[in-house]
Amino acid sequence: MTDHYPSEDDVDLGEVFKGVVTTAEFNHRNNRGAAEFHEMPYEQKVDHFNEHIVPLYQQHGLPIRGRGRWMDFQDSLKDMWRGDKQAAIIRSADAEQAKSTGGMIALYPRLADAQQLVVPGGEPLDDLHCTVIYLGEDVRGQDPTELIDQLHYVVGNFGPIEAQIFGSAIFNSTGEDPCVVYLVGQTPDLTPLFTQLKQFVAERYPGAAEQHDPYLPHITANYGSGAGLSYEGPVTFDRIGLRWPGADQDFVL
Question: Residue 241, SS3?
C-alpha cells in the first residue's frame, strides 16, 4: 500500500513532475503547470512546492514518495518541514488573532483592479488593501464611534483615489514574516489622507502610535517568499474601510 506523506525521508520531487498536471485539474489558480515549474530557479521551486503543491497533494490524496535524482530537494524539504512548518502555523495563528482583535483604516481597490493584483496562493481578492492607518494589535475596549464619524466626514472630501502601481518589493526579506508588496504612488491624495487621519487618531487611539515611519503606501500580495510581481499600472481605490472587531464598515469614495 502506498502511503501519502509517510515521513520527511520519503519525499522526492521526481513525483511532482508526474503529478503537477494532475493537480492542476483540481486547482488551476494555485498551479503553474509542469513546464513553468521545471523552469523555476531552485529556491522558487522549493517555495512553490511547499506553499502550493503540498497542500493540493494532501487535499486530494496524491502520493509523493520514493528516492531518486532529486536528493538535494529532499534535503531542503526535510529541513523546511522540520523548521518551518511550526513557524507557518504560528504565523497563521498570529494573523487570525490580529484580524479578530486589531484595527486599521485601509483603502480598497475597485474589483477590476483587484483582479489584476491577486496572485496564486496570495492574499484573497477581498483582502487586498492599502493600509492608511494602523490602529494597533488589540483595540478591544475602545470606542470607534468618533472614528466612524470622522470617516464619514473624510469621504466627503475625497473622491475615488487614482494612483499607480510603480513597482514591487519584498519587505522584511530576512525576518520571520516576509511579504511581497506592490508599491503605490503617483497620486496627490494618499499623503494628505494619511496626515489627516494620523492627526485625528493620535489623540484618541493609543495603538495608532505604532505607525511605520515614513509612510510607504503598498498593497501586500502575498505573505512569505515567492515569485516577483509583474503588474505595473493604474489602480483606483473606490472605498475606504474601517476594520474593527464587531464594527467593520466600508465608506464609498
Answer: strand
